[in-house]
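testing teh design pipeline on a random one, pls ignore if ur not involved
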């Protein structure tokens, strides 16, 4: 029973989130054969200020 966590920067629409989770389930099913009904996906979205890449928050990177 796979349990997949995805952390993203805030900004996806509800429809984009649905499409993303459907594709994650599909790829997981194809890759390891888990039953679709047993694949769990959790999407957590974070403001860019809470995500740091190369020592700088995404919010600051976009501001410059």
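output:
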């Amino acid at each position: 029973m796979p349990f997949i966590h995805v952390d993203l920067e805030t900004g996806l629409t509800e429809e984009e989130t649905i499409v993303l989770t459907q594709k994650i389930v599909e790829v997981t099913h194809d890759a390891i054969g888990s039953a679709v009904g047993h694949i769990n996906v959790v999407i957590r979205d974070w403001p860019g200020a809470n995500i740091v890449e190369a020592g700088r928050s995404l919010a600051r990177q976009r501001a410059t």
